[in-house]
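$ ./design --mode recover --in tokens.txt
reading tokens...
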């Protein structure tokens, strides 16, 4: 768990750390709030595009191998970001981080899934969320210290030694471990079918069209991209239904627990990344506090969630996923609604306390990932993880873009209040869709359930 998490922390760490550096990047490159958020939206959008391919690569060539390539590539991309002399080159480096981060995310989830008993999936992913979320929690605080002491470029330097250490651990320690659960993975690439390149291309084009439409609403390019989304998705679905080994099987979405988990994580990351845009800009631009203060405030959101996550996972293993996730979603909504009250965010301390409430709710929803993956056979877990994480990162793109659009070129207190009001509405929607999660503990916990075991939900078995 520690070995896999040491690489998996790179992806959230380099997302949350950057949040406190946005004001400094704005100043160095003379950008507005809506423009600088491209460092967040490009990163999250590129991850969303690359995730299905990352899952397919892991299924075909082995998730351990894909994990090592991912963490080494992330270290190289981080070095390029630290050295980039222009904002455009910085954006390119962020895309490179995203592409390699997709390999890390899908492979890490798959390695945890394949080595954990089904009756402890919630606890396992809760513990994994604790380790990974801790990096997200300390990210703003560490980022604030680094930005204050060494400048925003030092944020990217930090990822280089972490990537090297993680690659060495996974390549040497995990490769030598004779665990029975890893045995099928060693020869998976010899048996697997070719990667579904046409399907991945169509899906990537649909996601790119979505991102362009989101980035340029009302413009000619944005309108054309929005119109192209539907035919691209229709062509993608038609192709995947005729493919023996699809990159993303659309029939997976006919399974209610998986769909509820995917929609829930989409909405929860809209909230998370919207908050990570609103809070640093509000604290530093409206309240005139430092980047370090901004990091401490955000620590309440991710820190409380990280501590509570294992508890939420254990409860879901015993009581079912639905109740605890719905309760957590509603608690988060209460915190967001309080932040939306005019005058509630007039001090860093008040924001910190209310973000702690949001973090408490987020921690109780940690079993979504277990609900999404526990019905998928190990040979397809990369595909399922890629689909789940695609929903997560697309939610991040929407959240960051919406926050930037609401704030506009100038950060104001009314704009921040409006942003939190929108996020509170999203929180209600997340609680509603989470009603589709399983209401009881996983059945047949002693054996591996597969997609083929679930025809009653309309999900056809893989051929």
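writing sequence...
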């Amino acid at each position: 768990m520690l070995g896999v998490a040491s690489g998996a922390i790179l992806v959230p760490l380099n997302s949350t750390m950057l949040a406190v550096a946005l004001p400094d990047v704005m100043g160095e490159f003379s950008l507005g709030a809506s423009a600088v958020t491209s460092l967040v939206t490009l990163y999250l959008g590129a991850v969303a595009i690359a995730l299905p391919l990352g899952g397919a690569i892991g299924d075909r060539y082995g998730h351990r191998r894909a994990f090592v390539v991912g963490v080494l590539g992330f270290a190289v991309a981080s070095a390029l970001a630290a050295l980039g002399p222009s904002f455009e080159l910085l954006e390119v480096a962020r895309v490179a981080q995203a592409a390699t981060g997709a390999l890390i995310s899908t492979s890490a989830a798959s390695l945890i899934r394949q080595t954990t008993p089904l009756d402890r999936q919630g606890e396992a992913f809760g513990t994994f969320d604790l380790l990974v979320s801790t990096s997200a929690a300390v990210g703003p605080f560490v980022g604030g210290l680094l930005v204050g002491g060494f400048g925003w470029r030092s944020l990217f330097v930090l990822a280089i030694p972490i990537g090297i250490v993680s690659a060495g651990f996974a390549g040497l320690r995990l490769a030598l471990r004779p665990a029975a659960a890893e045995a099928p993975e060693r020869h998976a690439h010899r048996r697997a079918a070719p990667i579904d390149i046409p399907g991945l291309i169509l899906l990537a084009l649909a996601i790119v069209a979505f991102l362009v439409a989101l980035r340029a609403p009302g413009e000619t390019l944005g309108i054309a991209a929005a119109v192209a989304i539907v035919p691209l998705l229709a062509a993608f679905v038609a192709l995947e239904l005729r493919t023996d080994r699809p990159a993303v099987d659309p029939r997976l979405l006919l399974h209610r627990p998986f769909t509820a988990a995917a929609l829930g994580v989409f909405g929860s990351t809209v909230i998370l990344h919207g908050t990570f845009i609103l809070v640093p800009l509000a604290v530093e631009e409206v309240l005139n506090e430092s980047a370090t203060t901004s990091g401490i405030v955000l620590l309440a959101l991710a820190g409380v969630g990280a501590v509570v996550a294992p508890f939420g996972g254990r409860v879901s293993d015993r009581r079912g996923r639905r109740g605890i996730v719905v309760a957590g979603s509603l608690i988060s909504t209460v915190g967001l609604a309080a932040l939306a009250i005019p005058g509630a965010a007039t001090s860093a301390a008040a924001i910190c306390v209310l973000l702690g409430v949001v973090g408490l709710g987020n921690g109780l929803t940690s079993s979504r990932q277990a609900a999404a993956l526990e019905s998928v056979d190990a040979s397809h877990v990369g595909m399922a993880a890629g689909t789940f994480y695609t929903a997560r990162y697309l939610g991040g793109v929407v959240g960051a873009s919406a926050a930037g659009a609401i704030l506009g070129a100038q950060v104001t207190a009314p704009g921040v209040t409006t942003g939190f009001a929108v996020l509170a509405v999203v929180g209600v929607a997340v609680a509603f869709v989470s009603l589709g999660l399983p209401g009881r503990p996983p059945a047949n916990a002693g054996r591996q359930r597969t997609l083929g075991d679930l025809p009653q939900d309309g999900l056809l078995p893989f051929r």
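exit 0
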